[in-house]
């Protein structure tokens, strides 16, 4: 099933108001956080709050991910145990850096009897993770890892590497591209990291469009005010969808069924463009289906 992942909104698991509000927000996904946005002495309360919120249902078609604490923390095992009980669509695990990490996560979910529908998302936010992105993505081909995709974490990358987070992200683009290539080579999804300056909608829109053009499937968000712009930027424009339908229809014409390349509206179109067109239509249809309750 193709699922739109234009906008995934983080919210602190310790903020009941945010968890409640999320039921009516237009984000494609929600990331209920137990890590950075939750203080150490609030971890247990946040875990209970997330479990209660998921049990109460009402999130519609939005993809629900729980971001656990990292594997090297005292909270990780209880976070995963809670997730195994409440069965979100997935867990997002911070600072995954090695194949051993992926094996440990998949092994723990299996040992806890988590439903096979509970997938694993890895935050790529350490130097090691970026350097080994391809190996991590390849390891995800093992179904026991349950790996569904990566989320790029620019704040932690900046913290560890001292690369500055600047408008335009020039210093981060090589590593972003490296991670995107790794996911595409192994059939995974990848979401862009959050943009912290909530009060700067123009900067946010610029970074969203950049992320889309670099190849991300969508962006993670930190505030509801970022959802609409993000959805609009990651939605294929009507003209692109119309063009996609036209390309597919052209290749279905009897005179074109055995041709690899054709001329359409003055431009060359090949069957690879028909493949791309099918993806555009799948996403557009999935977005339309999201809006139907
Ligand atoms: C950033 C915030 C702390 C700002 O909070 P605040 O100033 O209180 O927000 P507002 O007053 O503007 O809120 C208005 C209403 O919207 C609700 N709200 C706010 N944020 C969210 C949210 N994220 N999800 C759902 N609802 C939200 C408020 O409750 C208000 O509602 P109402 O009462 O009806 O008026 C805050 O936005 C926030 O906590 N954001 C999320 C922070 C977070 O999750 N951070 C972790 C992810 S980013 C990360 O970890 C980096 C990554 O790992 C990396 O390495 O790069
Ligand atoms: Mg982080």
From TrEMBL:
Protein keywords: Lyase, Magnesium, Metal-binding
- What's a Gene Ontology MF term here? lyase activity
**Cofactor(s) this protein requires:** Mg(2+)
- Can you give the residue ranges of the HpcH/HpaI aldolase/citrate lyase domain? 6-224
| Superkingdom of origin | Bacteria
User: Its family?
Assistant: Belongs to the HpcH/HpaI aldolase family.
- Report the protein name in the record: CoA ester lyase
Give the species.
Bradyrhizobium symbiodeficiens
Q: What is the lineage of its organism?
A: Bacteria, Pseudomonadati, Pseudomonadota, Alphaproteobacteria, Hyphomicrobiales
């Amino acid at each position: 099933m193709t699922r739109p992942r234009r906008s995934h909104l983080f919210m602190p698991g310790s903020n009941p108001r945010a968890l409640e509000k999320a039921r009516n927000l237009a984000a494609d996904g929600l990331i209920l956080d137990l890590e950075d946005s939750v203080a150490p002495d609030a971890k247990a309360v946040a875990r209970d709050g997330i479990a209660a919120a998921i049990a109460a249902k009402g999130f519609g078609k939005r993809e629900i991910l729980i971001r656990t604490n990292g594997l090297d923390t005292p909270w990780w095992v209880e976070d995963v145990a809670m997730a195994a009980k409440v069965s979100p669509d997935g867990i997002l695990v911070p600072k995954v850096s090695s194949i051993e990490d992926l094996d440990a996560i998949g092994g723990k979910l299996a040992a806890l009897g988590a439903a096979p529908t509970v997938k694993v998302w890895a935050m790529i936010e350490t130097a090691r993770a970026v350097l080994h992105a391809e190996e991590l993505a390849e390891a995800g081909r093992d179904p026991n890892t349950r790996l569904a995709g990566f989320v790029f974490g620019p704040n932690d990358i900046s913290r560890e590497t001292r690369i500055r987070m600047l408008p335009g992200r020039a210093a981060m683009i090589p590593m972003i591209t490296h991670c995107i290539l790794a996911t595409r080579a192994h059939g995974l999804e990848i979401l862009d990291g959050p943009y912290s300056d909530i009060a700067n909608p123009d900067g946010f829109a610029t970074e969203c469009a950049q992320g889309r053009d670099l190849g991300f499937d969508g962006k993670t968000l930190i505030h509801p005010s970022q959802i609409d712009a993000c959805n609009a930027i990651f939605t294929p424009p009507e003209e692109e969808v119309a063009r996609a339908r036209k390309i597919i229809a052209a290749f279905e014409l009897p005179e074109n069924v055995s041709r690899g390349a054709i001329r359409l509206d003055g431009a060359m179109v090949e069957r690879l463009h028909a493949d791309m067109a099918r993806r555009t239509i799948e996403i557009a249809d999935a977005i339309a289906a999201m809006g139907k309750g």
